[in-house]
Design brief:
Layout lengths: L6 E6 L4 H11 L4 E8 L10 E5 L9 H5 L4 E4 L10 H21 L4 E5 L13 E2 L12 H19 L4 E7 L1 E3 L4 H9 L5 H4 L7 E3 L5 E5 H13 L4 E5 L1 E5 L1 H8 L3 E3 L2 H13 L7 H9 L2 E2 L2 H7 L7 H14 L15
Parallel strand pairs: 1-2, 1-4, 2-3, 4-5, 5-7, 6-14, 7-11, 8-10, 9-13
Antiparallel strand pairs: 10-12
Helix pairs in contact: 1-7, 3-4
Amino acid sequence: MSSASGSRVVVTGATGNVGTSVVSLLSEDPEVASVRGLARRIPRWSPPKTEWVAVDVASEQAGLAGQFEGADAVIHLAWAFQPTHDPATTWRTNVLGSIRVFDAVAAAHVPVLVHASSVGAYSPGPKDHAVDESWPTHGWPDAAYTREKAYLERALDTFERDHPDVRVVRMRPAFLFKAESASEQRRIFSGRLLPGPLARPELLPFLPDIPGLRVQALHTDDGAEAYRLALRHDVRGAFNLAADPPLDAEVLGELLGTRPVRLPRAAARSAIAAAWGLHLLPASPQLFDAVLRLPLMDCTRAHTELGWRPERTATEVIQEFLQGLRRGEGLDTAPMQGRKVG
């Protein structure tokens, strides 16, 4: 990827949770000459070697091929989680927008495409052992997020067949958190319903222990490092990204000093469905169904082929995130504006 003058990298979705971490890392990398950040709204944040361009990938007039001209790599992170009540809108941004990105990469003859897939692309899988990147990626069809991530895996299969000269890397991270993403993720997933005690776990009377709720987490900066390493190494294909340990009620109870209490899955889902139906909760019950079915991921390939290992444990990630919630942390970009829990 690199040349005598350094590499030129374009990042879509550059002002969100993952984008801000990726842009920060690349702007400090001596092998990177310039970063072009694409976002719907140009931020006041101005890291070194970075230029901003206002682009909406959902628009047919986005002119993406022109933005990618001369780039050594495109990192595609742009994604819309909301409105969850209007899946046609998220489909236009996430699926049709991504296909525009892929087509523009080919039209501009960009040699490297790194795409943000997700653990959500995986078909339902085990919670008692980890699966590698060969696990099927058909998602959970009822949830828009997992359905869209899985569809794009198939779109990339076709893209790789038609454009074998492009080195395509698919990152499949676990849930990504950092202190600065706390306000954004509260708005995306919890809205107004997140009670203050969740940011102060010592005030929680108990922790719901829901069957199947065992997931993995990763610090966003650790995930960003994997993206950076994918540019440096001549690798292709998918990479699982997660930190240990897997998070369940027992681990979180010890972390938060709170007693786990078994809660039937149906009761938890009914409460989420009622809140979502009343437009009080942005996260849909279908997404809850998908989370309960996500497999645990084996990250051996990222360790061996990228030389990647997370610097923070999953419990450290959750601790930092909760501190970010309490302080209302954020960044000076439109998606990442900070706001304290009410």
